[in-house]
Write a structure and sequence with these properties.
The structure is a homodimer. Chain A has six helices and six strands; from the N terminus they run H-H-E-H-H-E-E-E-E-H-E-H. Chain A is an alpha+beta fold and about 140 residues long. A three-stranded antiparallel β-sheet of chain A has the order 1-3-2. A three-stranded mixed β-sheet of chain A has the order 5-4-6. The interface between A and B is medium-sized, with 32 and 32 residues. The complex binds manganese (II) ion (2 copies) and zinc ion (ZN) (2 copies). The structure holds a DNA duplex (30 and 30 nucleotides).
Chain lengths: ~140, ~140
DNA sequence: AAGCAAATGAGAAGAGTTCTCATTCTTATT
DNA sequence: AATAAGAATGAGAACTCTTCTCATTTGCTT
């Protein structure tokens, strides 16, 4: 296990943190709720408390290792930070998540913030729709 | 009290619904949580149950009288529907909410949905920042 | 005015998340 | 390698926001 990433983030290399980080890095699914992470770890035989999963994900977020999203549906969704900021388009039927980057939108947002007198700190953009697959069914 | 708006929406003109609708229409604050509405009604001496406020706001939403937003912070926020779709920019310090419309962004979103093969149903865009007022303090 | 379906409201319940605190683990120091 | 001190963990309680349940009340039609 590679504890250097945790150390670099200023976090002690504890077993739960290592397990969660490893899981996030190796998972084929990019966007996961705390519960998702918790269950997946349980199923692979790892003993980690749910409270710890929540705590650690929040710490990872603060450390910039992970990004939190608020998709519709109430629960926070996390994904490994991988450099480039991006936004999301989600299927309201099957839950599929796609990512995109649009410089025009990014620029426009900055412009709007400036016009309104705000110093922009963040933004969130979600497009909802029915994905190609789900359109076929029916 | 004007019950025609409710009738038109296919809703019985009950007292709680009339009170809530009247309050939303006359409130100077445009964006309010269910709790906000509930408390405001209590303070003005109106007896309405919290469960009813939640229920009625959801019905108003389904009827298109009201729009629901998911601002950061967990609770749903409602506002009277007034024709034009718009997005929001919010102050992370004082909670101020401003509205804007940007056709370029709207178009881009449609384009992205099409490119990704989605039939777009909805979208949500929030810009977060520090408003002019709050920038002065400090 | 009567009858009936629909709506209400109080409180229980549910979902997601955070908190509490006794126990365990990590890391620095011998 | 053993020790000490502080940090992290995990079980469950607690919390927030929202929905559900169901006995009672209300609105609307006749
Ligand atoms: Mn993503
Ligand atoms: Mn608005
Ligand atoms: Zn789909
Ligand atoms: Zn402000």
């Amino acid at each position: 296990m590679d504890s250097s990433e945790l150390k670099r983030a200023g976090l002690k290399a504890t077993l739960p943190r290592l397990k969660i980080l490893e899981f996030l890095e190796n998972s084929k699914v990019r966007h996961m709720s705390a519960e998702d992470v918790y269950k997946a770890l349980l199923e692979s035989g790892e003993e980690v408390g749910l409270a710890t999963v929540y705590r650690v994900l929040t710490q990872f977020e603060a450390a910039g290792l992970v990004v939190r999203h608020h998709f519709e549906g109430g629960q926070s969704v996390f994904e490994m930070e991988h450099g480039e900021h991006h936004d999301h388009i989600l299927c309201v039927r099957c839950g599929k998540v796609d990512e995109f980057v649009d410089e025009t939108i990014e620029e426009r947002q900055k412009k709007i913030a400036k016009e309104k007198g705000y110093s922009m700190t963040d933004h969130s953009l979600y497009i909802y729709g029915v994905c190609g697959e789900c359109q076929k069914e029916e």
